[in-house]
Amino acid sequence: MIPSEEELDRALCLRHGPEVHATIKSATVGIAGLGGLGSNIAAMLTRTGVSHLIIADFDSVDISNINRQNYSLRQLGSAKVSATDENLKAINPYMTIEKHHVKLTPSNIPDVFGRCGIVCEAFDVASEKAMLINTLLEKCPKTKIVSGSGLAGYGRSNDIRTKKLLADLYMCGDDIDMKGVKGGLMSPRVNVCAGHAANMVISLLMKEDL
């Protein structure tokens, strides 16, 4: 039996304490890109109690995604925003998810994420990462950005760290270029980095900085 909204809220409140839970629940967090990082960040934030997410991705679930992204085989071919919505609502059916099945550009990023206090950058391509970060810094100056980069291969989990690069920009990763890394993108290190990003989001919501 699925618990009521009040029961779920009470359980999270008992876990985190009233003040922490209220702060996390009231936040609006954006996630740009729903691949290995973004789909797992979304699940972690949902489990922690964030109840309003704005998610954006133009892609669909492919069989090559299954090794590290938070999707199942039955979701192959589904838009990632729809599959993510389904997965998150299975965790918390009472949360609000605003879905944008679009390719993010400098012209639409402010409209999509302008209401977010924090946005997680979770793109795969370096040029798109830079575009999103630069656009948010320029057009959404009150928004904090948590970005991910450098998480391929296996081993070296302790090399993945969170650093503050600018006043409102945080980077999670190991600073190692994927070229020459054995194993490609794998679920364990991708999830370690996603955990860093989700933890940084929660820390920022609770006014804890690096």
List the helices and strands and how they pair.
Blueprint: H1 5-16, H2 18-25, E1 29-32, H3 36-48, E2 52-56, H4 80-91, E3 96-100, H5 109-113, E4 118-121, H6 126-139, E5 144-148, E6 161-166, E7 169-173, H7 187-205
Parallel strand pairs: 1-2, 1-4, 2-3, 4-5, 5-7
Antiparallel strand pairs: 6-7
Helix pairs in contact: 1-2, 3-4, 3-7
Strand content: 15-25%
Oligomer: single chain
Shape: globular
Name the structural class.
alpha/beta
Which stretches of 5+ consecutive residues score pLDDT under 50?
none
Order of helices and strands: HHEHEHEHEHEEEH
- Side by side, the strands of the main sheet go 3-2-1-4-5-7-6
Computed CA radius of gyration, to the nearest angstrom? 16 Å
CATH fold-level label: Rossmann fold
Question: From the coordinates shown, what is the CATH architecture?
Answer: 3-Layer(aba) Sandwich
Question: Structurally, how many domains make up the residues?
Answer: 1
CATH homologous superfamily classification: NAD(P)-binding Rossmann-like Domain
**Sheet bearing the most strands, described?**
7 strands, mixed
Strands, count: 7
Please tally the helical runs, counting DSSP H or I stretches of 4 or more residues.
Answer: 7
Helix content: 25-40%
Instruction: Determine and state the CATH class.
Output: Alpha Beta
CA distance, first residue to last residue: 41 Å
**Average pLDDT, all residues:** 95
General description of the model:
- The protein is globular, with a radius of gyration of 16 Å.
- 39% of the residues are buried.
- It is built from 7 helices and 7 strands, in the order H-H-E-H-E-H-E-H-E-H-E-E-E-H.
- The protein is of the alpha/beta class and 210 residues long.
- Strands 3-2-1-4-5-7-6 form a 7-stranded mixed β-sheet, sandwiched between helices.
- Helix 4 (80-91) links the parallel strand 2 and strand 3 (96-100).
